Amino acid sequence: MAEIRSSDGNINTELQPEFGWNYEGGIHLQSVNNRFQAEAALYYFKLEQAIVRRLDSNGAEYFVNAGGTDQKGIELKAAFTAINNPSGNFNLLRIWSSYTFNDFEFTDYVVGSSDYSGNELTGVPKNISVTGIDLNTRWGISLYTSISYTSKLPLNDANDEYARSYTLLLAKIAWRKQLGSRTAIELFAGADNLLNEEYSLGNDINAFGKRYYNPAAINNYFGGLSFAF
Q1: Cα separations in angstroms, 154 against 49, 72, 122
Q2: How far is CA 128 from the centre of its chain?
Q3: Is residue 190 a contact partner of residue 212, using CB atoms and an 8 Å limit?
Q4: Which of 156, 124, 154, 125 is nearest to 55 (CA)?
Q5: For the chain, which terminus, N or C, has the lower number of CB atoms within 10 Å?
Q6: Per-residue confidence band for 172, with pLDDT thresholds at 50, 70 and 90
Q7: What residues make up the domain containing 31?
Q8: pLDDT over threshold 90, residue 226
Q9: In total, how many domains does the chain have?
Q10: For residue 60, what pLDDT is reported?
Q11: Within a domain: residue 203?
Q12: What CA–CA distance (Å, rounded) separates 135 from 114?
């Protein structure tokens, strides 16, 4: 409904539904003691009448059909539990990582005199990876940290403007205290974007006048108190 009647207030009677076929296969592995787990998935999605978002001169969004797309990808995930000892000083130490490869491109996509067939699908990065470490201790102190990477991505169908790649580092520490069998209190603090990256948080793809970018905070800090019962 949001695509048929978008934020410009008009009813788009020319918009057609997307349709296609998706082929996917995967595998899941885990060790006998479940300390190591891994997953892999491979897929191919052939989509016709792909719906693409655009922005007009007033910043209102609308949607058009963009021919077809070929979407090929790989998704990988692995986790290793180095420590899992509820009675030890360090209860849990877990290292995990995931990776996504997106090979998405337009097929048979012509707008006026412009032929975008073979171009990368707008707004989709080719590579995304996330790696993290989780640590829990017997004293109720926990540490969580993760680092993520997103490769550059095309901002318009012509692929002549790209948002640059960026890496984000997050860290959080928490202290949790159990107060009886049904009540707990937790203090936490953390920091995001510790590498002080300048990046766009949510791009407006195909924006009029090349107004693609939205501001994102540089290194910032947070903290709080939670009470559960």
Answers
A1: 20, 17, 5
A2: 8
A3: no
A4: 156
A5: N
A6: very high
A7: 19-228
A8: yes
A9: 1
A10: 79
A11: yes
A12: 53
